[in-house]
Design brief:
The chain is mainly α. Helices cover 77% and strands 0% of the residues. The protein is built from 18 helices and no strands. It has helices at 14-25, 28-41, 44-72, 76-87, 94-126, 135-147, 153-168, 170-199, 203-211, 220-233, 240-245, 254-282, 290-303, 308-341, 346-365, 381-408, 411-417, 422-452. It is globular, with a radius of gyration of 21 Å. The termini are far apart. Bound molecules: phenylalanine (PHE).
């Protein structure tokens, strides 16, 4: 059973690791939530506050996850077991690893459903199905698609196959190679769309809406929104970052690499905002967020602009790529666990992990159709999974992992992995021991409070 610490495949280059973490972090959150949050909350003020949250809370957490992964060269379960042995504490800490893997699989099972919608839209938009649609028509199209999951089965299956293909080929031939193609494609699509948005004539108006400083709007709710978002978008708490860290060469500096990811993730979210807002403004559509923005408003808005249909397909392609690169990071911990813990071949491990997630995801897909009647506290399975993972599992698992790293793991281990300057190291440790638990605790208590009232 013991195959841990065997020669592990590594990323071919540090830049691929940066791109892989970016791929994981840039996902639906950046597209349908961040731009809206920014324009609603306080424009440039929110962006600065958010950056502070990323740098003071998100980046230290990310560094911690990467160092745990790299130190053990293992999946989250074995990593936590090896680390607890090294720290001389109960091996029960490995339960945290299991919880992280489970959280990843649960998030994947509803993420895959949204990805199926996105793939379906790429096909439908390419076929001109939504050409010149008004809001009403667009709304009906989306509702009809939701109520008829049978038609979504093809795109759902296609998405699963793409994920399986990448995971099954292993770290070097699968993840590494896919990232090297998909991330440049994603950046290229963002650039093309940006140029298009620039020509729409509403670029500067959108810029103002997004970035104008509105310090009077700063309040507790805004800080919490920034914190909560930083947390989800950086893919923390699912073991994704830890597992990717396990494939990082010891020669690389964790500190610089991770800070780079935090800043680039924010930058990309802002650039995507600078695509969405000019398009909405040019079509005189109100800014919205979530599925409504993506699946109802944007197709209408693009449709009203010159060459909008083609660009809309490109936009959905961009979202599809972002979903794939996040999804593989959600499933990699489980796949690596099956491979390392039970000595399975990579392909077999990938088939088992994706097949398990597929079954769960099918139930989620049908929670809008045949299983729509099955609800808990008024939530269908999709909403329930989203709720339980975002509000409870992610913060709790992260909190426990951070407490373990900051308070239980010896300084010798963390310092040997984080080869940064002494003040830099102590600043990181200070953030991890005090600021991070405080921030996560705050989010968690507020979530609890919001749920009970
Ligand atoms: N960061 C991704 C997003 O913004 C979601 C995600 C969460 C991916 C956790 C991996 C792990 O959409």
């Amino acid at each position: 059973m013991q195959t841990d610490r065997k020669a592990q495949e590594l990323w071919s280059h540090r830049s691929v690791f940066i791109l892989a973490l970016m791929g994981s972090s840039v996902g639906l959150g950046n597209i349908w939530k961040f731009p809206y949050l920014t324009s609603e909350q306080g424009g440039g003020t929110f962006v600065l506050l958010y950056l502070a949250c990323v740098l003071l809370v998100g980046v230290p957490m990310m560094k911690a996850e990467v160092l745990l992964g790299r130190h053990t060269r293992s999946n989250p379960v074995q990593a936590m077991r090896l680390l607890s042995q090294e720290a001389g504490v109960s091996e029960r800490w490995r339960i945290l690893g299991w919880l992280a893997v489970l959280t990843g699989v649960l998030i994947f099972s509803f993420y895959a459903v949204v990805a199926a919608w996105i793939f379906y839209y790429v096909f439908s938009l390419s076929a001109g199905l939504l050409a010149d649609a008004g809001w009403e028509q667009s709304n009906n199209f989306f509702s009809r698609m939701l109520a008829d999951p049978d038609t979504l089965l093809t795109s759902h299956t296609l998405f699963m196959l793409v994920v399986l293909l990448i995971l099954g080929a292993g770290v070097r031939r699968g993840l590494d190679r896919a990232i090297r193609y998909l991330m440049p494609l994603m950046l290229l699509l963002v650039l093309i769309l940006l140029v298009y948005a620039y020509q729409s004539g509403y670029f500067w108006q959108a810029y103002q809406q997004l970035f104008q400083f509105r310090p009077e709007r700063i309040d507790g709710a805004m800080v919490l929104a920034a914190l909560g978002h930083a947390f989800f978008t950086l893919s923390l708490g699912t073991g994704a970052v830890m597992t990717y860290g396990a494939y990082l060469s010891r020669k690389e500096s964790i500190g610089q690499t991770v800070a780079c990811v935090g800043v680039l993730d924010t930058l990309l979210a802002l650039l995507i905002g600078m695509v969405i807002f000019p398009v909405l403004l040019a079509a005189q559509m109100p800014s919205t967020s979530g599925p409504e923005l993506l699946f109802i408003s944007l197709p209408v808005a693009f449709g009203q602009l010159h060459a909008g249909q083609v660009l809309c397909v490109m936009f959905f392609l961009l979202v599809g790529v972002a979903a794939v690169t996040s999804a593989i990071s959600l499933m990699e911990p489980f796949t690596a666990l099956l491979e390392q813990q039970w000595g399975l071949r990579r392909v077999v491990a990938a088939v088992i992990s994706v097949a398990t997630a597929w079954c769960m995801s099918l139930a989620v897909l049908f929670s809008f159709g045949h299983l729509a009647g099955v609800t808990w506290y008024g939530m269908n399975l999709f909403e329930l999974l989203n709720f339980v993972t975002t509000y409870f599992l992610l913060p709790l698992v992260s909190l426990a992992i951070m407490v373990f790293t900051g308070w239980i793991l010896s300084r010798r281990i963390t310092q040997s992995e984080l080869t940064q300057s002494v003040p830099g190291y102590y600043l990181w440790r200070l953030c991890l021991r005090y600021l991070v638990p405080l921030a996560i605790g705050l989010i968690f208590v507020t979530n609890l409070y919001n749920v009970s009232f």
